[in-house]
Amino acid sequence: MLRFYGYFKEAVVESRLENCRVRKLIIFYYLEDRSIQLIEPKQTNSGCLQGIFLKRQMVIKQDGSQMPFEPTDFRVGLDLGLCGRSIRVYDCDQYTREFFENLG
Hints:
mainly beta; six-stranded antiparallel sheet; about 10% helix; about 45% strand; globular
């Protein structure tokens, strides 16, 4: 399992104090079946529903290729199109870094 950290910006229309909200996600990529799971860590008193954002399932790329996501599609600094949102990957865990170093 590879673990990445990402975020997306969500527009806020019901408040005059803020225009957008940044929501952080943990992206799990399971190598055995190429499935993806998105979890939003819970924060107390945030006012947003949090928890499982996308249940574990294989996700097809939105670029028209009809191919599932591969491990090489997840790179730190790239934007991913998942669940109709543009998710920016900003970090990964140590095991994931070692996995990509072994790939070359």
